[in-house]
């Protein structure tokens, strides 16, 4: 165990079956909460899309929080998967499932062979009129625009449209939302996406578990199916399996450890 003034850190590639793919997240197990300013400073120093911190106890097995390099967020899928992988693989969690208390309520992660299934609340989305700034930032005319709790969901015509998108991140940062999810039907999966969060300090997130709580209800209704496959078209890329469970969404994928070490604080 780390000595005084040290905390453990693991860097884990989530939604990936091999290193250098998926979405890297840092995970820091803690005995108790450090000051928020210290947590934010660690996340900024890590400079990954999210750093997850957890402590034991509370109403769940662990209390879990997530920080981007700039802000604390209410929900993060890939860093939750990474935290569960850390507990199962490195810290000897003895049960098949882990419950996390969070800003988004109780979250459950279940180990299923080489994958982990996240049980998350489904987002509530509604069709909206696209702000002019959003269309200008994306440089394209959407098929449809919806709004979830925090993010715009922008639907394009094809996978190629999503892959070729080159948004103006400066303009996108000025759109009043946490982030922008861009999606379209997939050629080899049910749907594809890319996710942009410049206002939260993450220009493009490699694989975004929480965004699939927004996309899965949309595509489940549009395609009239409850079980869907998804691919995020970032440079690192990632594959996910998504299932509608009433008012919740199951999101499944693997993870691999890239690094473990100590932070001096």
TrEMBL record:
Keyword Nucleus (UniProt): no
Keyword tRNA processing assigned: no
Keyword set, alphabetical order: Isomerase
InterPro entries (UniProt xref): Phenazine_PhzF-like
Superkingdom per UniProt: Bacteria
Any one Gene Ontology molecular-function term assigned to this protein's record: isomerase activity
Transmembrane segments: none
GO cellular component, as recorded: cytoplasm
Active-site positions on this chain: 50
Annotated family: Belongs to the PhzF family.
Protein name, as recorded: Isomerase
